Protein 1
Amino acid sequence: MAEFSPGLEGVVAAETAVSEVDGANGRLIYRGGYLIEDLVPVATYEEVAHLLWHGELPTEKELDALRRQMAAARKLNPSARGTLAAMDSQTDPMDVLRTVVSAQGAAKALTKPTLEEAIALTAIFPTIVGATWRRRQGGDVVEPRDDLGHAANLLWMMEGKEPDPERVRWVDTYLVLLADHGLNASTFAARVVASTGSDLTSCVVGAIAALKGPAHGGATFAARSMLDKIGSADNAEKWLTDAHTRHERFSGFGHRVYRTYDPRAKILREMAKNAAPELYKTAARTEEVALQILHEAHPERPNATNVDFWASVVLTGAGIPKELFTTLFATSRVSGWTAHVLESLSDLRIIRPASRWIGPQPGKKPVQLAKR
Amino acid sequence: MTTAYVPGLEGIVASQTAISMVDGANGRLVYQGYVIADLAEEMSFEEVAFLLWKGRLPSGAELEGLSLELAGHRTLTQGANIALDALPVDTDPMDVLRSVVSVQGVEHKLAKPTIPLAIHATASFPTILAMFYRRQLGLEPIQPRRELGHAANYLYMLNGKESSPEVVRALNTYLVLLADHGMNASTFAARVIASTESDLISSLVGAIGALKGPAHGGAPAAVIEQLELIGTADKAEQWMRDARKRKVKFMGFGHRIYRVYDPRAKILKEMCRRMNPKFYDLATRVEEVALQILHEEHPERPQSTNVEFYSAGVLQAIGLPREFFTPTFAVSRVAGWSAHVIEQAANNRIIRPQSEYIGPEPRKPVPLAQRG
């Protein structure tokens, strides 16, 4: 039996063509062999979703068909509406998403995951996120618009007014950047669920559940919360030095895979200059000081600003409230999750690892209740 | 350092655990040091749940405390009741469980997994299923009874009357036998989710999604269906040899880990003999023929009747409808899932394996207008 590698670090758990994180060279490659920095200027989120599902960027005709299909799948069904209404308005948005996706996908009989389901699931996320925000604010839920793209419709359902094109572009780019990332924990959770022959909704619900954790999708919220506490560029050095003395972790730094600057963080950092100029100043100074402190503490470790750090700045600039950050991450990653599940179907084998026993020697005899 | 890809992570140690051990070579299942055969017909489900959560059997006072705590959390939240009513009556009960557990567990702020939360979740599963079952039949819901044990109360809420001590005992033994089983796929899914520091309910919802798959918990109903197709013991050999020519899979056979007879199947088989003689007569003949045929095909493989085969006969004797076989598996396994989640959280490292990229080498994307 193999050695125990905590967190399965370095253990290959799947073969995939959906994406590749080349940590040594700081490259993120999406299906088809495209580098993330090459896709951002030429492809919208819908095009990237098509790419992850099919392995090719769509033609104009294919893109048009996909956009229509997604626009037609934006409405909640009665189960999902009823379940949404069952939760109080201040419920954690990730719990709302987990629950409403589960209800929307509740079915009579087990079905094998299909591309049509993947498209419908991806289309429904902005509707749930938009409704969650409206309810949180005490407003009426805004119905989706079928003439808007994925990112624009999300902002429309949150705000009930036509969004500014620049903000749409920032959100869209964020969605492109986060759509897949190798065998991260939520994608792996989706593949574990899929491996039993379960349905696509169950896989996606499991992935949402995993993304919720602060060590995964919750990190963008944590990064923004840290920036809020720091408050200004001038305060960064003092705040970070104090935090380091108290052995606090810096949110937005550290990644298991990248050994150079995360290519997504690089793109978001550049966007942040326009999207959120004030917060950018605080963030840039925070990054500088944090990397310096981290380098002094661990000179052997690589540079480590992660995607969450700069995503928190760009999303803030795009007008996304920080309570919704993790749900935005999910709104992007659902295309990757579903692409991985569909890919895994071609050679489905149950993921059932081994465990190492660290309990008492087997065979002790139980004592009767009365004698305990 | 990266290890080679092992499909399904077979033989790869993904966790250290003191909760249960599957000793496949010797056909032993061990809970916290106790061999399952010593627990199965001696202990209540409540005692075993305590054992899995705390690592030791409870004293009389502790057992009473746990029973009260479970009984006190059998009612659903208002939200869960509303969500339950929002789902169509013909929904797959596993989808109902996944969705309503999700609603029952919604929170405003992320909470760490704890034993009290595990108790509350465990208490809610039978209620969710019984309420839905009654609704399917157009019957009034039955309120839980505090003075009944876990198994007795589940049956009471399903049927609206108390079951015989023999039936209660049989369900209790089933719940004890299925409560944990090493690093099976649903437990592993729960641990992957917990490893991101997500909450207990998120882990449980993911585990339910994984258990639903036919390669995991979804098979016992299929055992009954296959036995019905076979019809009678004297037709077994003919039917099964014909079926094999059509590549039909024998339901209830095969397991990755056991190399000798599954100790749970042995106990359940004996229970079938006592409680469900009609099933027993047919099933034992089908088992004999199946093992003979499987041996002829693969003489190198070990005997392999799995737990689902005789589970089906026991659950049928208890009077559960077959759509509730897999959900009742969840009623039991939630004890193990939550114990694993608490263990994972206590000594956590994010479970983030590697993938091997099998896509094309990096290339440049073509802008939309030039894609033809």
Note: Chain B is about 55% helix and 5% strand.
Protein 2
Amino acid sequence: MTKFGRHDDRTLIDLMTESSIRAIEDASANEKSVDAVYAASMLAGELNNRTAIASALVDQLVLFPAAAERIENGPASGASAIKDAYCAIACGMYDTVLVTGGEKMRHVSGETITDYVATMTHMEAEYVHGITLPSLAGMLARLYMERYGVTREDLSRVAVKNHLNGSKNPYAHIQEPVTLEGIYGSPEAEVNNPVIADPLRMYDCCPVTDGSASVLLAASEKAKEYNDMPIKIAGIGHATDIMAVHDRKDPAVLEAVSLSAAQAFKMAKMTPQDMNLAELHDAFTILEIVESEDAGFFKKGTGHIALRDGVTSLGGRLPINPSGGLKARGHPVGGTGVSQVVELTWQLRGEADKRQVKGARRAFCCNMGGFGNNVVAFVVERC
Amino acid sequence: MDVKPITRMLSVAGGGSRMSAEIESILGVDWDVPKKEYPPKVVLLPTGGRMVVREARMEELPKLIKAVAPLISVERDFYDIVAARLCGELLALYRHRARNEFCLVGIVNGKLAGVSNNRAFDAKTHISLHTIALKRGARVGTHMFAAKQENSMETLEAEEILVTAESPIGFRRLISQWCEPRPGIQHELNGAKTWVITREKYQKVKPQQVFGSRPVPDELMKSSETFEIAPLDWLPKE
């Protein structure tokens, strides 16, 4: 993957090309190895005035005559592209598929980005009334505070943990740790960590990020030709939920996370307890806590207790977001799902350096499109 | 943009030395309203770092200009305009061509993190000039902006501060929090509009925006007596 962050001097295709080349080189593959290219992006047309980005990527990489298409599924575009590539290989159509997810967003104002991202909410029931993703997350956080006793300190603890992890990740957008006192417990925290969507503050929200990530998927029997230590996708789940949050049976439950995770674990013939680490979609700190419960790692309403006890920290029983997560590694929306799988790959290979989860053999990730209404989950393991 | 001319000008020691004392006494300006020194304070940053905010000394101004000048090449967030103007203002202060101007510096771990300056139009009306953060993403600019208004209002006892905005980020983060519109007056920086921080408004904003503790512990103060200029890894590549 590329370093995530701000890339003023590079185009989206430049970034996607760089991560693609890195993945191809990592696999010791060549241009003849790639049967198809799946390019994931949510906003390439809207923000970069680029359409048909898969064609542009193939052209840049000289991968002709590989099939090429763009896959868009909101911020879950990256994971969707991996899932679709898996299916294409599993059905026997291709042997090897390059999946690249990327986004270039930093050149546009925060207001514009927030508005574009908000267009994935329910148009008539939410968007036209001014709803944004931070506001939905704010309401979820408030509900969790009232129902389960989650505190603002708990939310800040997620940020502190993930920024610390991000400081150990050379690819992370933000590589500087923050302290609980600096963003929560001091008078200065009022300025250091201003309100975004009550009760969420700036450090509860992921940054807007430029970046790209790539993986090369191959049929199991072919994978070892490319790499001595390929990582196996053992389980995949993909589920949706009612779009308008207020119409869901319980707005404090991310049903699509539960269903997709259950599908992935079932396919892998594993349980949440078998996992050594997880990368969750923490676009907002509250989401990490909720997803950690709805994916099955902790009983409902106790995710924040596990957080307080250090269970989800590096060195804990189940490190969550050792990469820094969306919170610190960054969130180039179409690239996030792919970057989660890249992180798990490095972790399972033992190549994650200072943020390495010792002895990691199995891992989980989930990538969310919309506000919890379209979720793709993976279980991966060492071969 | 080549920034060498600014530093080269500074190396011409005291242009005033070639002028007659008589003309210099006409052109040279300094403080002509009551002056008190800003009491240094320490501000906690989100990173856990502690930023000492203190008044810059006259002999430090060339070093400050050297630190700010490279930012003239940064278009992003209007750093170019702010840096160019700040360099001009600091140079004018150093060469005694700016009346009643003060400058604050923010220092983290012995490294310059931010600079801000204001000037007194007269004892009661102050003019907010510029704020620049060399350390990004740590709310340095917000704290430095607050500190210079604190200096104007509390140390120098101004009654109001005229403000304008040049960058969208400054407008969004500061004007909307701190200011009220003041139509019919042109701010001396020729900005689009003029806003004002009245004493009443300052007292309302202060509990949410002005932070820091005093006195600064001796050891921390000692380590902030001077500062280094840290390399800026976020500058655009040439």
Note: The mean pLDDT of chain A is 97.
Protein 3
Amino acid sequence: MIELDNVSYGYGGGTLFSQLSLTLAAGSFHFLTGASGAGKTTLLRLCYADLRAVKGKVRIFGEDAGALDRDAVAMSRRRIGVVHQDCQFLDHLSIAENIALPLTVSGRARGTAGNLEELLNWVGLGAQANQRPPALSGGERQRAALARAVIVSPDVIIADEPTGNVDWEMSQRLLGLLIELNKLGKTILIATHDLAMIRAAKADVSARTLRLKDGQLFQAGAEL
Amino acid sequence: MNALFDLIVGNPQADRIVPQSGTTARLTVFVSGVMAFLAVIALAVSLTTNRVASLWAEELAQSATLRLPADPATADALLVSALDVLQTTPGISSVRALSQDEQQALLEPWFGPDLPLDALPMPQLIEIVANGEGYDVDGLRARLSAQVPGAILDDHEAWRAPLLDAARRVRLIGWSVIVLIGATVAAMITLAAQAALAANVQVIGVLRLVGAKDAYIARAFVRRFTLRAGGGAIAGAIIGVIVVLLMPQGDGSDSLMLGVGFEGAEWVWPLMIPFLAASVAFFATRSAAFRRLREQT
């Protein structure tokens, strides 16, 4: 699905990581951990072509991400659902319209009202469908972001600290949704500090945990 | 064709992805309306100048004056010879020797009504009117110099050339004003579109994240600004046409200001102004939007 081959990246002339390689196979489940500033978000952004590698190659669905034009990047993002920690929405639209946004921009919004309602109920936001995003709590926003990420049934779901702003109960609920998606064959990559969540997930799913440290990726140790 | 259909009909869902911006919208409509109004007035003045100048030039081109020497001893013989030459010249439809009263009337503005013309040696003037094909001016001059010594043919070229030149300049100024108005509309729409795009950085970011292509994002802005500029221009053009219609009308032959307006096919121009304004807005917004989107990841 997504492959990083000896990828280097840095900001302002510095090097954040170098010669880093990673393969996300179809149906795999990966956690990405590391200290703040280690480059987790940058690594995720490289995976959905929001950044371009300074060196090395990023292949997204077999295509060289560095060679994709802007339209091709947009098309590849329709196959990748992204959940950000800060969950940005269009505040002038309702939650239902925000969740349906990937369908709207790809011209597939018509005739999907039933699916949208089902999805809203799946993430527990059926009652909030017509509310505006600012009216939602942190947990509700995270679930809405997850619903938006999966509405087009993407092949890959990338989540950046999806449980960063929610309590334990809500984080378990979100994790449950992601595990459910993985069981449906979706490839999952989650960046998180939440080691308890990783431990909880390993009981239900075969997940690989990677640690980003000093610009290199390591297989996480036995403590997980 | 689909792009044009989308632009006119729109997509209610796609239109809503960009939030409304009240002040920018009202300013765009207002400025577009004012510019369309000015364009209609400039067009009316330019086209009327062109029409009146053409009328005057045509009248001057069709008439000429022959002046015979003021010599009482030879006046009658020269008049007979001159009329004979003129009447046998192809391309001349009529010739007429001006009477003494008519010549006095011509001099009256300069010398007053009491000038004793009988006591003065006055050159005889002959009015020549050409037919549609016209006559050979150089050939006529040659014949006159041989058969009517001292006769001077004035074909009004000395009057016509500066008149046509002045009309050409006024027309050029008129079109320059219209081009400037178009450039001002383009600049204003570009600024407004850039402001709208800058105010919607987060919206654009979200749209790109969910897989929106640049063309889709740009279309939301382009359609909005095109419709605003077109709507404002329709209102401005209608007001401009009403103002032109309310101006005093005349046949345009006596005073330039007594005929400002549109005639016949010229009415196409004020009708085109809203379309031109909308086109300018379309391309200005499209250019600004794609430039901005290329800058934003």
Note: Chain A has a mean pLDDT of 85.
